[in-house]
Design goal:
Elements lengths: L2 E6 L8 E7 L7 E4 L4 E2 L5 E2 L7 H12 L4 H8 L3 H9 L1
Antiparallel strand pairs: 1-2, 2-3, 4-5
Helix pairs in contact: 2-3
Length: 91
């Protein structure tokens, strides 16, 4: 049996990742599509579109802001967008 490994991924932009083995037979399970919905933002942090920010990060935003840190500094420290910090503080 001929086996060729196949792995194509575009995880950085949240596109589907295709993994699996191609066989010379009729194997329906030979190709698996795995979707990853994470990416890297411009600050270098990871994000998952449509998913809420973890509670730990939300608490850190509030603590930093309460201690007088500016929104931009919070954004840089936690590697999340300025708008995300603003949305959390507005609630």
């Amino acid at each position: 049996m001929l086996h060729h490994s196949r792995s194509t991924g575009l995880e950085m932009n949240g596109s589907p990742t295709i993994t699996g083995n191609m066989h010379d037979g009729n194997d329906d399970d030979a190709l698996h599509v795995q979707t990853t919905n994470t990416g890297i933002n411009v600050k270098g942090g990871t994000y998952a579109p449509g998913r809420p920010l973890p509670m730990k990060m939300r608490q850190q935003i509030i603590e930093y802001h309460g201690s007088g840190m500016k929104v931009g500094a919070i954004s840089e420290r936690l590697r999340i967008s300025h708008s995300c910090v603003c949305k959390i503080l507005a609630r």
